[in-house]
Amino acid sequence: MTTPMLEIKDLHATAGETLILKGIDLTIQPGEVHAVMGPNGSGKSTLANVLAGKPGYEIVSGSVRFEGRDLAGLAPEQRAREGIFLAFQYPVEIPGVSNMYFLKQAVNAVRAHRGIEELDAMEFLQLIREKMKLVEMSDALMQRSLNEGFSGGEKKRNEILQMALLDPKLAVLDETDSGLDIDALRVVADGVNALRGPTRSMLVITHYQRLLDHIVPDFVHVLSGGRIVKSGDKGLAIELEAKGYGWLQQAEGERSSSKAETAAG
Amino acid sequence: MSDVTPERHWSESFGAVATARVGEPAWLEAARKSAIARFVELGFPTRGHEEWKYTNPASIAKIAWAPAAAASVSRAALDALGLPLAEGPHLVFVNGRLAAELSSVAGLDPAVTLASHSQLLASEPDALETHLARTEPFDDRAFAALARAFASDGAYVRIPRDHDLERPIWLVFLSAPGAEPAASHPRFTVVAEASSRATICEVHATIGAGPHLGNTLSEFRVGENAQIDHVKLQLDGDGAIHLGHAAIHVARNARASSTLVTLGASTARHDIVALLDGPGAECVLDGLYVTRDGQHVDCRTTVDHRQPHGSSRELFKGVLSGKSRAIFNGRVIVRRDAQKTDAQQRNENLLLGVGAEVDSQPQLEIEADDVKCSHGSTIGQLDDDALFYLRARGIGEADAAALLTRAFAAQITERIASVALRERIEALVLERLFARELRG
Prior knowledge:
heterodimer; A: 265 residues; alpha/beta; 4-stranded antiparallel β-sheet; 10 helices; B: 10-stranded mixed β-sheet; 21 strands
């Protein structure tokens, strides 16, 4: 039996003071692509932030294991070095830090941790040239301050470029498609698809089925009220697109109330 | 010094020094005497003075400072500061006196004057008279009066008309303190004649450790259509008190920029006065102050627009860590005749420590009615989202904080033309704040 890439069991987690995730169970095997869909406020981004270890997001109960190792107490940088990558929904603009310099620092931090020799300036340039093609990034964007003044599409392409450079085992894409026009979406999706492989798993969080036409998932989960209320294959995404989330929330509501009745009875 | 007032202490000290001093021209002796008299008249500042409300001069007053004795510093100790002195001619002073063995004027344009006061007084004693006898604009500052009374040596730089110097001129003031508290009072004057241009790099540093007071007085006279770019780097030791007075006179259509980087000393105080004396004069005042536990820094600037069509840009940025304190007081005066003035001032502070405290005090005094003036100040911490973003890419927490801090400071350091000096300053900032360097 292989160790799952990611194994989430009965995860309860807070964002700030508020309990957002209320019992998530999810297992992702190496090479699998899972999509998590759900309405606004269902906990999608909280799940992404909990996986990346963002301060302010706390696991209250349950567990998250990455390659069999408990993630609790692991700093964000340690998770990144171990191979978890979060593509941000809103990549942060950092004036005064050039994109190129940042990427080199990140790549070398990860390489040092993995016991691979750090890249010098020339080697790094070679590596980045190769990866830039993947997402059609221009040289000009490399010299600018990190994400500063980048368009929405440029920011998301920069995220995928970082993913390509850091070579993660588990990539979590948090609404990478939101705000992108169809051309930008295609570039980003092509980049992601090129990075699919038998040893890399992906968790694709999205609000729209459209993305899943381009990044075709092995499994689709619907998150609602902090729990996964339905799982299926890519057909589920198409069903959601046709019916919306309402029917699931309704079904969920009925389930909860029938539970309550059972308890009362 | 409980039984002696600071006024009496300094007067007596002056008397002792004056007896030992020989061969100075009569005008200089007279200027010194009138300066010490002025000091006594003004009295040692107290916290009651508005100017000294935030930096208590009592801690300076209570110490019986002796005049710093002549000392020597090795070439290795100077080199260890990591300054790119080879970039240009340099005069190095130790405890306020020229150290000829550490100085070099090789490659200096022969039309340019770069000499110590002691050298000039021996060769052409009258050249200095106008500059050393002048009391404006610090006539009412007690410490400036002390510097005029006590300065044992200093530098004089004159760039002749139409001369454009490619290489920076370095003025390095080293203190080599002993066990007893000692004071030195370096002075220097830079005269840029019409349509000339030069860069002046001024450095203050301590070699060794021990209590010392550096009380400096400098003057820049930027002639018509001339340009002076000045960088001041203060990296005195923990036992130091640094007091700096800089007056920048900017003539018609002239441009002056001054970038202050103040990192060292337990207490550092900088008084910078820019006087825009001619129409169309431009001035850029930048500052970066960095403090760590126990440090106190007080930056006071005055930009005085006296003629029309002048412009001033001022940006002071502070990074405070540990339990430390910083004060920025920026005064912008626009006189009635200074119509069409364009003045901007900003002060931005980054607090890295919970015990750090900053006072930001912009003051606009506008008498003209057709002007464009703005000011603003901010006090904040490192952005949590930015920190998390960097960490989520594998960059460690301390490295991420160092990177963001360097980016914050870069807005000032980027204005320094010398790449080697800029990199040295950035390295010093990170070393002091995070005890680390960032790899290329």
